[in-house]
Amino acid sequence: MAAQKQAFTVPALPGRAPSPPVRRLVFALGDQLDRRSAAFDDFDPAQDALFMAEALDESTQTWSSKPRTAMFLAAMRHFAQQAADDGLRTWYSRLDSPSSAASLGAALAQAVAVLKPQAVVMVTPGEWRLRETFAAHPAAPVLLEDRHFLCSGEDFERHAKGRKQLRLEFFYREMRVRHAVLMDGDEPAGGQWNFDAENRKSFPASGPQGVPAPLLFQPDAITREVIDLIDQRLSGHPGSLDRFAWPVTRADALAALDAFIGQRLPLFGDHQDAMWTGQPWLYHAHLSAAMNVKLLDPREVVAAAERAWRAGQVPLAAAEGFIRQVLGWREYVRGIYWRTMPGYLDLNALDARQPLPAFYWTGDTPMACLRESIGQTLELGYAHHIQRLMVTGLYALLLGIDPKAVHRWYLAVYVDAIEWVELPNTLGMALYGDGGVMASKPYAATGRYIERMSNYCKGCRFDPGKSTGEDACPFTTLYWDFLLRHQPRLSKNNRMALQLKNLARLGEDARASIGARATAIRAGDGIPPHDRPKGLLP
Questions:
Q1: What's the pLDDT at 535?
Q2: Residue 246 pLDDT > 50, yes or no?
C-alpha cells in the first residue's frame, strides 16, 4: 500500500510567468490521472509543466454527490502531489482558492494567461461536453488520443460498419481474438466464449458465507482536506463522507486490484448477480472508480484475472465473467457513447415523462429493495451492477421516469460515474430509452426477480407475487402495467413474446385493477397510496 501523503503542497498559479518559460503545458483532467498517457510523452521537466484545476461547475452543473466529488478531488490532489514530488513543475488550482475559476475552460484560460506556454496539450476528454469545450477553446490545446482504452473510436466504427444491430457478444469475441485474451490458439479457453449461464446464482437461505472484508483506504491528510472542503463548500449535496475509503492513488488502486484477484474473484463468477441485505460489497471488484479516473489500466486488470485462472487460483467462469465486463462491456459502452452522441442524450423511445421520485435522493421508501440499494448508494457512493440495473433502474423503467432525470441521478451519486460509461448503461440498458441500441429488449421484471436474487423481500411488507391489493409489490403491479402500456411496441420484439403471452392471460378486471393501482403509484411520487405520509395523499 502506498505511503500516506501528509500534506498537499502543490502551489497555485504564480503571479507572473515563471522562469524558465513553459514550452508545453500539460492540462490533465480529473479522469486522466495516468503518467503514461500521451500527454506526458517526451515530457521535459526543465521545459514543460503540469496544470490541474478543480472547478465548481463540475460538481454543480451536473449535480454531484459528496462521495463522487471526493473521489475526483482526492485522486487529483494525490496525483498532482506525486508529480511535484517526482520533479515535475506542477501548478494546481484549488476549489477553495480565491482565484479559482468556476469552469475548467476558464481555469485553462487563467493558466495560459499567466504561464504563457508555447503550446497546450491534453488527452481528449472522455465526455462529449468537455471535448466540445476544449476543441473550441481559445488556447487551442492539442487533443491527444486516449490510449487507456483497448478499442479506439476508429476500431469501433470498423466493427459497427454494415451491421444492422450492435450486440456485445460479437464485439466481445472480436476483442478476445484481437488482444489474445483467454484464448488457446484460435479457440476460446474452455471451448466456449461466454460462461454467463454459470454467473447467475443466488445465495442460499443462510446468505453469503465468508465474504472477505473490503480493503479500505482510510483518508490521509490530503483526503481529509478534501472531505473538510466538501463538507464546507458543498454541504447541501447528497451523500455522506463518513465512510469514504476509496483508493485515490495509483499504489492504493494496485493494492485493491491484488486484493480482488486474491480474495474475491474466485467467488465473483457464481454470485455476481446476487444481492443481500447489509452486504453492499459481496464479491465485487470495486475497481471501476480507480479505472475510470485512470489509476488502473484495463490491460493490467484483464491480465491479472487471466493469470489467476491460468495459475489455477480461480475458476474459468469467474475469470471470464469479470474479463467480459472490462474487455467487453466497458469498451463496448464507450464505443456506443461516442458513436451516438450528442443525440443519444435526448432519446426517449418509450416516451417516459414521470419525474424522478424524491426518495431517490433520500432512500425514504417502504420498498425494502429500493431502501437498501439507495441507502447504500448515498452512504458509500456505490451499488453493484444488478442493484443499479434490476432495482433502481428497473423501478425507473416500470414507473416511466424521464430518462434524462434518471441519467442525472446516476451521474450524480456513484463514485465511478463518468458520462461515457454511465449514460448508455442508464438510458439504454436500464431504461430502454434508446429503443434497442444497447439492449435487445427492455429488462422488465416483476418483484419475483428481486425475491429470487436477494433476501430483500423478506424484510418488506409487499408481496412480490401479487399485482393488486394493498400488499401487492409495486414492481409487480408496474411490470404488468408496463406491458399493457407498451404492448403495441413490444409485440414487434420477438424476445418479448413469452412475456406478452403471459399478459394475454390477464382478464379485463385484473387489467383494470392493475392500471388503477399503477396510476395511483405514479400519482404518489412512486409510493403506493397506503404507504404515503398523509401530506402526500393526492
A1: 47
A2: yes
